What we know:
Order of helices and strands: EEEHEHEEEHEHEHEHEEEHHHHEH
Strand order of the largest sheet: 5-4-1-8-9-10-11-12-13
Strand content: 15-25%
Low-confidence stretches: 1-6, 332-336, 350-357
Number of helices: 11
CATH topology: UDP-N-acetylmuramoyl-L-alanine:D-glutamate ligase
Largest sheet: 9 strands, mixed
Number of strands: 14
Number of domains: 1
Distance between the termini: 54 Å
CATH architecture: 3-Layer(aba) Sandwich
Amino acid sequence: MRIKSNRSGRCVGTGFIALDVIRSAVSDNTTLERRHAGGSCGNVLADLAFLGMHASAVGRIGNDVAGGELLADLRRCGVDVTLLAVEEGRRTPVVIQETIVDARGGRRHRFSRACPVCGAAMAGYRPVLDSGIQDIATALPEHEVFFFDRVAPGTLTLARRSRELGALVVFEPSGVKDEALFVECLNVSHVFKYSHERLSGLEALVRRARPPLEIQTLGADGLRFRLRGTGGRPDWVSLEALPAPSVRDAAGSGDWCTAGLVLRMAQQGLTSLQRFKQDLVVAALQFGQALAALNCSYDGARGLMYAVTRGRALDAAERLIQKKRPRLPPIADANTSGIRNDRACTVCTSDLLQYHA
């Protein structure tokens, strides 16, 4: 089945929204630096907007240089930032991704929350405040999907309201801090997706909540999922990873997989357990896996969208699912635009450092 390229519903997302700073060494003294909106929630929303779904961001960032760049990039991607509060005297979260090329030409990346030049610590995530949550809930646009990746009381309130209004609730955490609150988030979620590398030993918590669809990603080994609600103990269903045309950077693969899953489920109207059929879930996950594989050919968590059009990405994903070779532009340096610097501290400018203490 071909994926529609027109707008398909709306996803509201809240969680980790940050400015991604992608740094690649060009020579001993020169670094290529690109800055894009990111964070897991930011990436999923931008991916969805690119794929043809309305996307709205909810959260808090700072009134600083990083915040301005983040907002500009989200708007370019087509994400609605009306409910992304810009706060005076606060800093915007920043994540540094450094791409390292070894002697054999192999590429890997590492993430940091500190400036690679001066060592200044970047700001962290701040959840939406309970004091303003009712105003936010009232202001939310109509939406078919609610996505969140961080555990917080205010976020849980928004998730509950969305579910009550008939939205599909997707929860993709990166950690467990408050077990009781974590279980409440599981209880309100239709879809629980997590990385085996980041989260493990969750069986006891999951048994207390039993989310209808549980998805565990396994990196290069693909993923597995299980459906609940039909009685008995659900069995895991495994899906192998789809082969990437080439592997340049695996960052953001999980976010593309989530975006593909959300888009396909929204198109299929999967907003209740009664509609969760195994074949439909498999099709949605394979579409997400195809997008994840395609993005591996480019630098950065969202390199695919800067290299090809939406239509070309959708066609390439469909061909990959059909085990055909996708038609993509040449891989070599598709994302070479950026700021070149040697020892300039371009990440934490004076505008950012004035809030560093």
